[in-house]
Amino acid sequence: MRKKSWLSAYPDSVVKEVEIPDITIPQVLQETTKNYPTNNAITFYTKKITYQELLFAVNLFTSSLQKNGIQKGDRVAIMLPNCPQYVIAYYGILSAGSIVTQVNPMLVEREIEYILNDSGAETIVVFDALYAKVKQVQPSTNLKNIIVVSLQPSEHDFAPDHTFDGFLKEGSGQVTPVDIEPEHDVAVLQYTGGTTGRSKGAMLTHRNILANVIQSYEFFKHEMEFGKERVLTIIPLFHVFGMTSAMNLAIYTGGDSIMLPRFELEEVLNTIKNEQPTIFPGVPTMYVAITNHPKAEEYGIDSIRSCNSGSAPMPVELLKEFESKTGSQILEGYGLSEASPATHCNPPFAERKPGSVGIGFPSTDYKVVDLATGTDEVPVGELGELVIKGPQVMKGYWNMPEETAVTLKDGWLYTGDITRMDEDGYLYIVDRKKDLIIASGYNIYPRDIEEVIYEHPSVQEAVVIGIPDAYRGETVKAVIVLKAGKTATSEEIIGFCRKNMATYKVPSVVEFREQLPKTNVGKILRRALREEAAAAK
Length: 537
Hints:
This protein is α/β, with parallel strands linked by helices. It folds into 3 domains: 6-18 and 204-432, ANL, N-terminal domain (Rossmann fold), CATH 3.40.50.12780; 49-179, Rossmann fold (3-Layer(aba) Sandwich); 436-536, ANL, C-terminal domain (GMP Synthetase, Chain A, domain 3, 2-Layer Sandwich). It is built from 15 helices and 27 strands. The strands form 6 sheets. Strands 7-6-5-3-4-8-9-19 form an 8-stranded mixed sheet, sandwiched between helices.
């Protein structure tokens, strides 16, 4: 058991329990607009949008939705890259009492069709380049309204139901009030990645999302100032991390979201140089790219006071290299779609432990339970499954009562992540349950091996998977991307591992690639590599 409460790390100036007002997400935008009407809410290349301009557009969008028959509880899908129209649509949908259904623009037709049918969405806001995909699946869905967003003037060979600008013009700006219960009414269907089967829609209420925004602010408030922050928003807003830690947190604090629709290194560095952001929520692959740029320091990267890393584990060697090169501090955290998403982070107000995802957010309780039964809390330092309880934890999965019952038990969210906790309450994510490799009866955790491989001076990125083995059941395979201009052989990597880990963990197969498969937010797709290996056997 823990020898002392992790809450002892909290100074008196940081609250341990947050009070969550009984308001909706759109009311947060309304309050911020009252306080900072002329502050920039969004910077998108050369375009600047103030809070009063943003709220005006949101009201137009909401009133147009209502004019077109969209009611409370209706699901409205958004399938856009980061852009002002995303924010307008998101807050407009919620103002109508409807439910934002997040759709990743990278999905193929089959996946789009599944989410639209599972959610029952009848309206979608979609990027013009993806319009053809949506039209292709429309006959097999309930879609009635397609609102098309164009980020630049272009000639289309199609006539959409609505253009985004045209849809705004349909609205009067007079919103019919909707009775929304923040604690019970769903704001967002956040679809999980589907890595463990069917993609599931996590039902996040207004209170869930607002709670996580307030928890985040309270945790980082000594690093933030209302009305002053500039948030580099590259993490996709359709991803729960971007939604909360970039867009909603910026709006809650009256900050400016500096948006980019994709991570392109030179564009990102030039944006940092020109806009001088103060906060940069990112993922490890983004920090890898910046670290390996030969002139990163020349772009004013030191304007960023805080880099909040999430979505994937941050190798310790990478963290050290990034910080030594840029002077910025990375605070690694943890979360998941089902928790809106953030539950843990290395504290800015107490000891930071590299390799750890830190301690719990205010009003968040957690424990590590045994893998066999999921009921008994394991001793300090031992491995088990992380379970979490807090106001940010989802209502359940959309139309999936059985899956909900497996994941939510007595108010606890069972994460499926294998972790250990130290005596100070800091968490260390070891792996997903499903990523565990069992070779000759030994439990092998890919993260342990990856941490060692990242210490090799030639390695830029690495991922470890289990592959079938006739003798051991499974054996270890490492897939590696080398740094530009560096070389290494399989034998060299295996020898390096043999010197730094137990023999049973050492990879027996090493493959070099130019790049690794990744999600749209830069998370390495271990599953895709496993599937490749299974198909090749």
